[in-house]
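Below is how a single chain appears once it has passed through the pipeline. First comes the sequence as given, then the structure the pipeline wrote out for it. We keep one example in the README because the format questions we get most often are answered faster by looking than by reading.
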Amino acid sequence: MGRRQEAGAPGKILIAGGRVIDPASGTDKVADVKIEDGVIVKDFSGKVAFETIDAKGLIVTPGLIDMHVHLREPGREDEETIATGARAAAAGGFTTIVCMPNTSPPIDNRAVLDYVTDKAADVAVNVLAIAAITAGLAGKCLSEMGDLAAGGAVGFSDDGRPVTDSGLMRRALEYSKVFDLPVISHAEDAFLSKDGVMHEGFISTQLGLQGIPAAAEETMIARDIILAELTGARLHITHVSTAGGVALVRAGKKRGIRVTADVTPHHLVLTDQNLKGYDTNYKINPPLRTQADNKALTEGLIDGTVDAIVSDHAPHAAQEKEQEIETAPFGAIGLQTTLPVLLTHILSERFDLPALIGKLTVGPARILGLSAGTLSPGEPADITIIDTKAKHKVEAGAFLSKSRNSAFIGADLGGKAIYTIVGGRPAHEERRPVK
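Resulting structure:
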């Protein structure tokens, strides 16, 4: 699956006077960024007129990448479409998003992958796809992995469902190694998590809700790291949520195993305490854990154990989320809140803005082998401009997603993307350029 294509040349743009942060090249300085014909350039060719965007007082970064998004198309276009998800992504500062395969039908064959590719060609941002590990996400036999890799899939996952058959997971890792693509693990022991609603602990007991123990995640992380060591394949653990999970990934990396990991904003910021009101917007899988887990996840970001931050954008229809908590689906949207939540709650002396931007750009780009996540000359002009001082309250009516199931509605946040450029063309803007 290639990059988004569009007819016509985008021309020349000068992004002037912003603080340019490019973790891939180690850049952090006030500078200009120049775009010509959709590519970042060192200098313009000739003396042709160009458009200027005044970025003084703003942060200029490589376009943000979200490597874990649910777009629901095909099958549940009432919840989200590739087009609406792309618009929400652009508003959130993301220039590249990667959709997961648990659609209906799932992305387990070339026909469905080609359908997504065709739909993605006309939207505001670059949309790539993860293909299913198993046919029908059923966990019985492998998908057409070779054909899917040839069609442009950037990884394999049965996200939303664990691959319980260890032999099958081993074979998936062995095949993925042939294509040098990562297998993305939804680490969950379904026997331990059966009928669970939230994190197993004091709060679940207090609320009378079936819990999901940390061990449900950690046992599968341990298994998959062992299988990655056996096969030498690339393994990625998505939405790590427990302190034990971080420790397992850290230990695996120290042993030289090819394992990477990501975390979501809600697992960094929220806890099982948020479920006290039985609000289904906080029903997420893996579940919101404890403050101790939050601290361990943040430490994992700081020391490099956790390589990327993802939204795990999971839209659901209102009538489904309005069911009782035991029957409501897991998941929350996050494309438009990820960056503001991180800017508000995660920055510190030990985890500064360049470190944060790295987890949203070069980190996911390296995991998936993408030509993205950098402002180096010659690279595609995917750029995000951020106002770290923009204060706002999260309101459901402001979401561009078709769904409203956010875990941050009503939150007061500081900082947001105000200008998103994809391939040299504005995909979202809140401040008009000065000509």
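The first helix runs from residue 82 to 91.

See the next section for the split statistics.
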